[in-house]
Design goal:
Among the domains are: about 145-225, Pdz3 Domain, CATH 2.30.42; about 230-310, Roll (Pdz3 Domain), CATH 2.30.42. The chain is about 45% helix and about 20% strand. It contains 14 helices and 17 strands. It has helices at about 1-30, 105-135, 145, 155-160, 185-190, 210-215, 240-245, 265-275, 320-345, 350-355, 360-365, 370-390, 400-410, 415-445, and strands spanning about 35-45, 55-60, 65-70, 70-80, 140, 150-155, 165-170, 195-200, 200-210, 225, 230-235, 250-255, 260, 280-285, 290, 305-310, 315. Strand 8 and strand 9 (about 200-210) form a beta hairpin.
């Protein structure tokens, strides 16, 4: 079932992102009077071979344009008259240019058509983050609240010198307001970052390694840091060991196999170590202490949601404030991608852990539970990431076409159609090789 939910979310997300990206090219072309022969979500052929297995799941001709839904769910395309792309080569453009063709238009108009998809993806990403921010407001856990008890340091954090109970004062000398910033891109993808921590009355500086993202990319890792927290039961899930033993909201688990526990991470560590086993728990309910003996699930779950004893701060935001904050969050996806590529090219992060294809996106991002808030957040992030990736100056991508058009505008010389065809072919080889490698890497990670 989880696999179907992952696939369903990925398919819906791609349909939205690809459909609107191609619509950006389509509407820009139509504004400048360029004929669009086809507008397809997904390919109606075996990509990248435009003459193999040609059929559509649905299509309808309206005016000069055939609208359709292809069978090969790896993207989509618009067939713009007079333009060399993955669906045609220079032999299709042997005749004299017609006024309604892409190649007959001024370079600046062609540039806008090429950037139309990227522009729409950026607008979509900002719109999603804007709406999500307006609906949810600004919710955060302050550093001051966390520092009442300190942090939980997981193995990777312990490896670099942090300890459970540390209180983080600042990051690289700068005050931090929101606890989540300690796990944000400025830390994970930053250079020469350090934490100033307070430990047993002593102030220490803990350097963050430049390859922290590489370490955190391992699926086996438990995380980096979290807030040290006492907890109670918030909600009991039906048909679980928690329901069978009569666990109730507001109960507190204070003992596990005769070992006193106070913090949530202590409970989860013991639960994982005793997965599938019968355990002895001591439950504090009001003034009473109860002893129960549930058998945990095979993945070490009892079946309840915890209520941390932490006070989260909430600020309602107006439309203007939401736009500023939401836009900043959306645009940070692009800056994070730039930082990530810098890490890859510097050798601090392996490309296999940083890049994900359809399988990896479905597993790591959308997940096996359908949650609309998560779905739209991930879709907004992917929209911004798609805009960034398409802007890369690689032939066959929008950025590659745009770079050639900028050269034409500056030099006043138009590259030959044969040159455009060759660069398109080179770009397709690069992209297909990259896609094949990413999908192989995704599959290996999913299996092993």
């Amino acid at each position: 079932m989880e696999g179907l939910i992952m696939a369903g979310q990925l398919l819906l997300g791609l349909t939205i992102l690809v459909g609107l990206h191609e619509w950006g090219h389509f509407i820009a072309a139509r504004i400048f009077g360029i004929r669009v022969n086809k507008f397809y979500i997904f390919f109606d052929f075996l990509f990248p071979m435009p003459n193999v297995l040609n059929f559509a799941l649905w299509k309808k001709k309206k005016g000069d344009t055939e609208y359709g839904l292809g069978w090969f769910p790896m993207g989509g395309y618009v067939d713009i008259e007079g333009m060399i792309d993955e669906t045609k080569d220079s032999s299709k453009l042997a005749s004299e240019p017609q006024p309604y063709e892409f190649r007959a238009k001024p370079a600046w108009q062609r540039l806008i058509v090429m950037l139309g998809g990227i522009i729409v993806n950026v607008v979509l990403g900002i719109l999603i983050f804007w709406i999500m921010t307006f609906r949810a407001g600004d919710n955060f856990l302050s550093i001051q609240e966390v520092n009442k008890l300190g942090i939980v340091a997981y193995p990777i954090a312990e490896e670099i010198g942090l300890k459970t109970g540390d209180k983080i004062v600042n990051v690289s000398g700068k005050e931090v307001k929101d606890f989540s910033d300690l796990m944000g891109s400025d830390v994970i993808l930053g250079e020469n970052v350090y934490f100033t921590v307070l430990r047993d009355g002593e102030t220490l500086e803990i350097p963050i390694p430049n390859d922290l993202y590489e370490k955190l990319s391992d699926e086996e890792n438990e995380g980096f840091i979290s807030a040290l927290q006492t907890f109670s039961v918030a909600e009991v899930s039906p048909d679980t060991p928690a329901e069978q033993i009569g666990l109730q909201p507001k109960d507190r688990i204070v003992g596990f196999n005769d070992k006193p526990i106070q913090y949530y991470h202590e409970y989860t560590e013991l639960a994982e170590a005793n997965a599938g086993k019968e355990v002895n728990l001591k439950i504090k309910r009001g003034s009473d202490t109860l002893a129960v003996n549930p058998t945990l699930t095979e993945d070490g779950k009892l079946g309840f949601m915890s209520a941390p004893d932490l006070n989260y701060e909430h600020v309602d935001l107006g439309l203007g404030e939401s736009f500023v904050l939401g836009s900043g969050r959306a645009l940070s996806v692009i800056t994070d991608n730039i930082k990530g590529f810098k890490k890859i090219f510097s050798g601090q992060v392996s490309a296999g852990k940083a890049l994900a294809g359809p399988v990896g996106i479905a597993r790591k991002f959308y997940g096996g539970v359908w949650n609309w808030t998560r779905f739209w957040t991930i879709t907004g992030m992917l929209s911004m990431a798609l805009a960034f990736m398409n802007l890369l100056p690689i032939p066959a991508l929008d950025g590659g076409h745009a770079l050639i058009l900028l050269y034409e505008m500056i030099s006043g010389r138009t590259p030959s159609e044969k040159f455009m065809e060759r660069t398109q072919q080179i770009g397709m080889v690069i992209l297909l090789s990259l896609l094949a490698w990413i999908m192989f890497n995704d599959t290996v990670q999913a299996i092993f």
